[in-house]
Amino acid sequence: xxxxxFKTEREYxxxxxxxxxxxQWLIDKNYxxxxxDGRIDYSFIYVLEGIGYCEIDNIKYKVPAGSxxxxxxxxxxxxxxxxxxxxxxLWSHFSGTACDTLIECGFKTPTIVNVCDRKxxxxxxxKMIAAFYKKNEYSEMLTAGYMAVLISxxxxxxxxxxxxxxxxxxxxxxKVLAEMLIHYNLPINIKKYAEYCNxxxxxxxxxxxAYTGLPPYNYQLQLRINHAIELLENTPMTISECAEExxxxxxxxxxxxxxxxxxxxxxxxxxxxxxx
Length: 276
Prior knowledge:
Elements: E1 17-26, E2 31-35, E3 42-49, E4 51-56, E5 59-64, E6 67-71, E7 77-81, E8 87-95, H1 100-104, E9 111-114, H2 118-134, H3 139-182, H4 190-196, H5 201-212, H6 216-234, H7 239-245, H8 251-262, H9 266-269, H10 272-275
Helix pairs in contact: 2-3, 4-5
């Protein structure tokens, strides 16, 4: 493809403009791109074949075929490709008000996007590159049109991935809840549950609270108090025995937590069902 004789980083106040784009075979050497201050435009780096590698917030990620690296303006770009992976990429740098779609659909960048409709996306990308280098009367309009399609497909992929991740998270969380119900009287293992859900501990606590309305520790306490009420009402256990049975080593602390959750002392429930 011909060399572009002008600086490719440009801002654009109109709807959409592709500043540069291309298809590249990364098979002759290792490639590393490090732009500490990023570019002034937006970037799509799409892995058509092979695998890419990028670093975001000091964490290294693999970028498989069918995924792209998305960079907003003025964000550090740190990515590369290894010769032996025989990677092929499609890339585009672009700007304009149409890019607001990427902000509005909730992207936090830099990020990696798994493209849902690869066939349509790759077809539009290749056609856009061809239109860009054709340089006829309508090539700029045609290039912008294909770029708009790519932005729309990436936004749609983000929506689909979010729905799939939510379904996946909910299924995992339901299994966590089932295990917590069985082992409600044992110490809670946040690290174990977070690893099972493939997230960090802080993130697990957030999604757990969003799903149940309570943080994991409070949820477990609620399970313990519910079981304690059952035991107090239906068994001859003393309050101390009940506290130990549901996982409290200290009866005084048990009574304090019990009252916080129910508004009543354990003695209020002791034998209440039989008395009624």
